[in-house]
Write a structure and sequence with these properties.
single chain, 4-stranded antiparallel β-sheet, about 10% helix
Length: about 400
Amino acid sequence: MKYLIILIFSFFLFLPLQNIQAKRLMPDDFIYKGAFRLPEVSSVPYDYSWHWGGDAMTYCPDDSGSLYATGHDHNQWVSEINIPKPIISNNLNDLNTAGTIQNFTNIRQGLGIGDREIPRMGLEYLGPRGDQKKGRVHFSWGQHFYEDLQESHAMSLLVLDKKKSKGPWYLGKRTNYTSGDYLFKIPQKWVRNNSKGKRLATGRFRDGGWSGMGPSLIAYGPWGKGQVPSPQATLKSKALIKYTASDDWEATTQHKLNNYHHSDEWIGGAWIKANDKKGVIFAGTKGTGEDWYGFANGVVWPDDPPYPPIPDPPNDDRGWWSTGFKGQLLFYNPKKLKKVASGKLKPWEPQPYATMDIDEFMYNVTSAQQKRHISSVAFDQKHDRLFIMEYRADDDKPIVHVWKIKK
């Protein structure tokens, strides 16, 4: 009888742990469905089209569903496309091609935002707020280097050529290196209980760790009591993930992402609630092995002269390098972020509980040291689909890969 009681108690003790584990989004919850190509666009110049594009993307659930995404990374105009059936094939010619719904448009026009050097951008659809009858495409806008604090966020109508975008806005006095890139929604229930109306999550990872040595995540909300803020307004925000910046010379401890490399690139993310599974993911290109600042062939660039000669191409690109790179997803637990929001954890304490390598699905990973495997992420909450753009997989155009989260 004694052993029977212990057995029954152990069963009920273990059962809640099983339920908790079952509700955490895991890599094996993702089923690969295939990919599709992007259309050729002849109505705009080459450097405004899909070529070298795909830095930002969002899913819009209106009508039958569509994707808004950015074109060439020098200009980052936005186009809307439909979503054809993805195909699994090793041959690009077997893939279906999306159709254009709205042609490329500069949604920053009229906001007083000038050109930015090596620009970064994020897009996210958000449903109607206040007296809005339609949702909006919110966007972030940043650049590689900063000297002064700049406006970083705004929003556009779904009809892109209306040219009635609102903003731009500041995110407090936070350095622009922590925002102005990826952008995604936070589930409404989590917002209500934890972030006091801050419905959007923004962030950035800047190579070299200037943004923090790992992906950053900042919750913000563009409304006070339902009104759209005035241009140049400062929005309230809350850091949910923020590791120590590499140039923070006053920091007594360096808090960083596990297995961190200065050459990492985290370029997209999504807060996923699918069926009973929950998780926050970041997608990017992860450095492996050793990392260094210099050239791909292992030549290290010193802090002070004498400087070494610049190697011949293709090893003449100076920057942060690793022995290898791989396309990867990081998985964070929303419960940890809840503790950050309440003050029970510091923003540098959450770490990924799982990772998922995705290079086996890529078309254009041709060498161990190839950077920039992917370029943006979007999540379709309605159909539990994750979209990831692969950079320059179709000549100079990206393609879109699709995963379904299983029930």
